[in-house]
# Entry
Amino acid sequence: MASLVLGVLVSGRGSNLQSIIDAMVAGTLTARIAVVVSNKSDAFGLERAQQHGIKTVFVDPKPFKEQANPREAYDHAVLDVLKSHGVELVILAGYMRIVTAAFIQAYEGKMMNIHPSLLPSFPGLHAQKQALEWGAKVSGCTVHFVTEGMDEGPIILQAAVPVLEDDTDETLSARILEQEHRIYPEAIQLYGEGRLTIEGRCTQIEESVKQSNT
Ligand code: GAR
# Structure
C-alpha cells in the first residue's frame, strides 16, 4: 500500500509536527510528509522538518496584503504548494491562521486540525486559559476534520485530562500537549487505513480487522 502523503501547516513550535515525525520513525504511522508550510519564517517547526530532511516552504503573507482578497489569495498560494507536492491529507498543527472556504473545499474531508480542548467547549484562541477561567474540572484535546465553522468539524479522536486545583496555563497546557502528541498521529493513521467515514457531523471509526494465522 502506497503511504499517505501529508502536508503539514505550522506557525510556531511544531511539537505536534515532531510527534508525527516520531510516529513515522517508530513505524506506528505509515505516511510521508511531502512538505511543511508556514506563514511564519521563524517557526521552529520549519527547523524541525529540515532536521529530518523534509522540504519546507515559507509562504509570506505580506505580499498578499495588497490584493483585493488577501486571505483567499494567500490560501491559493498555499494550495498551489500542497497540490504541487501531491499532498493527500492536510494537517494543521498549530497553524494560527483561519483557513478560507476555498481552501477547505479543495481538501474537503481531507484536512485535520488539533485543538487543545474538548470541543465543542472552548473553541478559538487560548483554549487552555479559557478552561481554567471557566473552572472546568476536565479538559483535553480534540482532533477533528476541518469545516468552515471554526473548530466545528466532525470529531475524530479526543483525550481528556484532569484540571488540577493549582494548575496554571503552562501546567495544564503541558498535560494536554502530551495527549495531543499521542492522538494526532493515531488519527492520521486511522485515516490512512481508510477507517474514518464522515456521517453528517460525526466521524465513524471502523474497527480494525484483526489478522489471525490460526
Ligand atoms: C497546540 O497546543 C495546538 O493544539 C494548538 O496550538 C499548539 C501548537 O503547538 N492549536 C490551536 O490552538 C489551534 N486552535 P505546536 O506548535 O507545538 O504543535
